[in-house]
Design brief:
Layout lengths: L1 E9 L3 H11 L8 E9 L2 E8 L2 H8 L2 H7 L10 E8 L1 E3 L4 E3 L2
Antiparallel strand pairs: 1-3, 1-4, 2-3, 5-6
Helix pairs in contact: 1-3
Length: about 100
Amino acid sequence: MAVAILAEIPGLSREQYELLVTKVNESGSPAGALFHAGGPIEGGYRILEVWETPESAELFYNSETLKQATAPLPAEQQQPKIILTWPVYSLDDRSGWRRIG
């Protein structure tokens, strides 16, 4: 079952966000990632992601890739604060609508 995750990273700047996603995606999108969007909010950054499974998201959030990419950041910015998760049954990523769950 695919899952959407809404998360926030307090205090993260646009420059830090761009460095982080560039580093994380150096070898391509993380395994299981279907969609990622990020943007500024008051006091940090908000991220919306869709993953193939909850397990693929958990593997990424606990991965060495993410740990290395966030190592230069203050401790409170090294793990996104997950606000909400929910099952996802369809996705339209500009390649057309499709069922995913």
